[in-house]
Amino acid sequence: MNRRDFLKHVAAAAAFAAANPWRSLLAQTASAPSSLPATMTARKSPVHIIRYRKSQQLIKGHGISRWRLREALIAGFCELAQCPVLPKALQAFFQPNDVIGFKFDNTLEYLLATNRVFSEEIFRIFLQNGFQPHQLLFLGATPADPLLPKPRKPNFGWTDQIDFGSGKDQFTAALDDVTALVNVPLLRADAISGISVCLRNATYGFLRHPARFYRNACSPYIVDIYRLPIIRDKIRLHLVNAVKVPIRTDVLEHDDAVSPQEALLFSRDAVATDAVAFEIIERLRANAGLQPLLESDDFLPLLVEAARAGLGKYHPDQIDLKPLWLE
């Protein structure tokens, strides 16, 4: 399968298709001849897409339905762990004594207003399934519901300078406080790196001076930073907020700047998730009459570079899209 075929597949997967069975769609894709050797496609990286069969289920007016978001979050954790019992599903990712940091992308919170609700419902889920408030730390979002206890307070200082090969910078000191990370990026287009999803949020989101590393579409900085043990060894899963998807890289206040998709993506592979996210954004931009972020049929260079560094899989033949429709 080439990138153009993958785009068609992801477009179908992302579309609101209440009556379209996923099983036959994925079977057709699975039967397509691979362009990679069998040794490279034997173990695919699963990317779970959680959606409601009907639109306007998660988004309610200008807000988000909390109980439906909670339902989708629980479904995503269980699907990713391949365990129907939530406490056991969480045990697949975390140790009982872990201090877990949840890293949100707050860049467009003024426009999307989703992070607070996400953080509060995630907080509730973990509190009700064996974790204590002092084990849960939030970066880029703050649970503010007065009925909830206070989570662990982040260390807002900075580390000493860390050399990541292609550069040096200080990182948020909160990284030293946590033993596990949950990456909670937005699914959004970006004028600098093309997209800002898993890889970008889990790297530049921790830097003191991210603007120093914007040149050359953030390459090779994103890959070099993600490879640091302080980040890579702690990330347990990626939970992508695709409820509202910013598809423009210029005028974000434009009417078509944000596309309501009401979806969540769950995966343990940042590269595979970003590959799916990139194709979703390209489809949404095409539907809005916007120019593609990448003119050719080539794959996004950042993802190819990340895969070569062993950070994950970018090629569609190596990605297993796993949709789940909620009623």
Percent strand: 15-25%
How far is the N terminus from the C terminus?
Answer: 31 Å
Unreliable stretches, pLDDT < 50, 5 or more residues? 16-33
Mean pLDDT across all amino acids: 90
Listing every helix as H and every strand as E from the N terminus to the C terminus, the arrangement reads: HHHEEEHHEHHEEEHEEEHHHEEHHE
Helix content: 25-40%
- Using the alpha-carbon principal axes, give the shape: globular
* Total DSSP helices: 13
**What number of domains?**
1
Main sheet makeup: 7 strands, mixed
Structural class: alpha/beta
Strands, count: 13
Strands in their spatial order, largest beta sheet: 5-4-8-11-12-1-13
Radius of gyration over all CA atoms, rounded: 19 Å
Structural commentary:
Helix 1 crosses helix 12 and helix 4 (66-81) crosses helix 7 (115-127). Helix content is 33%, strand content 20%. The protein has 13 helices and 13 strands. Strand 9 and strand 10 (194-196) form a beta hairpin. It has one domain. Residues 16-33 have low confidence and may be disordered. The strands form 4 sheets. Strands 5-4-8-11-12-1-13 form a 7-stranded mixed sheet, sandwiched between helices. It has helices at 3-14, 22-30, 38-41, 66-81, 86-91, 109-112, 115-127, 174-177, 198-201, 221-226, 229-232, 270-287, 301-308; strands at 45-52, 59-60, 63-64, 100-104, 136-139, 162-163, 168-169, 180-184, 188-190, 194-196, 235-246, 258-267, 319-326.
